[in-house]
C-alpha cells in the first residue's frame, strides 16, 4: 500500500499495482509490516473462536468435517479466518454501496523457471473463460449481468482476481472467482487464441518505453532470475505452452496455503460460507496441514498457518530468494525522438519495514515528472527533480524517481529522457541528484550544481515529502478496490493488516538523517544503468561519470 501511495498507480499489465503491469514492482500493494513477535496476540490479533460448522445450522450445504478458526484485529475491524488446509479468508465490513471481493494467489514470475517462464501472464489471460461450471460465453454473460467491475492481473509475486459488485451479487462474484481460480478448463482453442493474440500485446508493450524499459531494468538488475524473470510470456515459450503444461502449472501453484480470499463490505460469516460452498475449504494442501484441535483454546494451529514467515519473521519471504546483481543494458535506436535513461540501485523490500518507509519518503522528496505540468505543488512541482533538474535544463524532457518494491528486495532510482546527443550529460545530472541527497547537509558532493542551495535533504523538504506521502496514501485508501488489494496482499505476505494510522506514525518518524543514510546505502550496491535511443555518448562515458559520483558498476 505504501508503494502504491508513493507512486499513485497500478502496474502496467492491465493498467493496474502498490494492478496492471507498470513494471509490476510498483504494483506490490502491502507495506509497513512489523517484525515478528513470539505470539499472534502481540501482532494485534485476539483469539475469537474455533468453529465446526454443521449443515443443519445453515441453508448452504457445508462439509461437516470442516473446521476453521477466526481472529479479529485489536480494533475489531479486520477478521481473519484460517482453515486447516492453509486457506485464509479475511474481510472488513466497511459500509458502502458496493462490495469488493478478491482471490490472491501466491504465484508469479519470480517463481518461474525455464519451463514455465511467462505462465503467470498466461494464467491471467485465461481468467474467466471455460471452467467446470461456466463456458466462456456463460462467464461473459454472468459478468455483464453483474454490472460491476471484475478483473485479473499478474505480477512478479501475485496473481490476483478481483470484483466490485452490488452486495446482493457477491454470491455470483464468488462463484465466478472460485471457478476461474480453482476449476479452470484449459482448452486447445483458448491456448490457440493466446498464441495468436499475445504477440500483439508484446509488440505493444515493446513500443512503449515507460512499460518496456522497467522490464529490462529488472532483467539487468536481477540477472540470476527470480525478480529478473520476464513478466510477460516470451514468444518462444508461448508456442511451447500446451493444455497439459498449463494444467500442471495450475496444479502446482494454486494450492490452499498459497491462497487468500479477501472482501470489503461483506459479512464475514457469509464470506466463509460462500468459500466453503464453492470448494475453497476442500482443496488439498501441498503438505500436511497442522491439526485443528478444538480443545486448543489458544489457537496455536491458527497461528502456525498465519506465521508463514517462520518463528522470527512475520514476512513470508519466498524460498527463491532474489539476488541483486546490477548491470548495464544499452539499446541503440537513433531514429527515436527521445533517449531514455534509467539509473537504479538495490533498495529495501517489504521485510525491511524502516527502509521501506525511508525510500517511500525519498521518492516523494525527489519527485519529478514531465517538463510540462498543469498541476501545482500537489503534482510535485517543488520536488528536487523539478527544481534542480527540469527547471534548470530545458533539454531534459522528463525526470522522475521510481521505487519497485517486493517481499525481499526493491529497486530505487531515477528515470529520465532527453533529446538525442545529450544522454551522457543526462546520466551525469541524475547521478548528481542521487549523490547529493546522500551527502551530509551543508557539504558539497563531488559535482555540486551552481543552482543547488544545499546537498543533504533539509528538515523542510522531508516534512513536505512526508505530508505528500500521507496525502497520497489516504486518498488511495478511499478507493474500495485499493482497500481490497491492500487487505488481501497484507494478509498474504504478513498474516495481518497494518492500519493506515500505523503507517502514518511510521512516516512521521522518518528524519532527514534517515533519508541521507538511505540514499548512501543505495550507493553501496552496484548500479543498474539502462539507456534506449541514441546511446553512443552514455555507453562511452558511463564508467567515468559513475566513478566521479562514487557509483559502482
* Uncertain runs: 4-64, 289-302, 308-317, 442-454
Distance between the termini: 32 Å
Number of strands: 14
Mean pLDDT: 82
Q: Give the class from helix and strand content and strand pairing.
A: alpha+beta
| Spatial strand arrangement across the major sheet | 1-2-3-4-8-5-7-6
Count of DSSP H/I helices? 18
Helix share of residues? 25-40%
**Biggest beta sheet summary:** 8 strands, mixed
Overall form: globular
Strand content: 15-25%
Task: Evaluate the radius of gyration.
Answer: 24 Å
Key attributes of the depicted protein:
14 strands, 18 helices, 553 residues, alpha+beta, 8-stranded mixed beta sheet, 6-stranded mixed beta sheet, globular, 37% helix, 17% strand
Explain what the structure shows.
The protein is an alpha+beta fold and 553 residues long. Helix content is 37%, strand content 17%. It contains 18 helices and 14 strands. Strand 12 and strand 13 form a beta hairpin. It is globular.
Structure summarized in a few sentences:
With 553 residues, the protein is α+β, with helices and mostly antiparallel strands.
What order do the helices and strands come in, and which of them pair?
Blueprint: H1 2-7, E1 45-51, E2 68-73, E3 78-82, E4 88-92, E5 99-105, H2 119-125, H3 136-146, E6 149-154, E7 159-165, H4 170-182, H5 188-206, H6 209-221, H7 235-240, H8 243-253, E8 259-264, H9 268-277, H10 300-306, E9 327-332, E10 339-347, H11 353-366, E11 368-370, H12 384-390, E12 396-405, E13 410-418, H13 423-438, H14 459-476, H15 480-494, H16 500-508, H17 512-523, E14 528-533, H18 536-548
Parallel strand pairs: 4-8, 9-14
Antiparallel strand pairs: 1-2, 2-3, 3-4, 5-7, 5-8, 6-7, 10-13, 10-14, 11-12, 12-13
Helix pairs in contact: 11-14, 11-17, 13-17, 13-18, 14-16
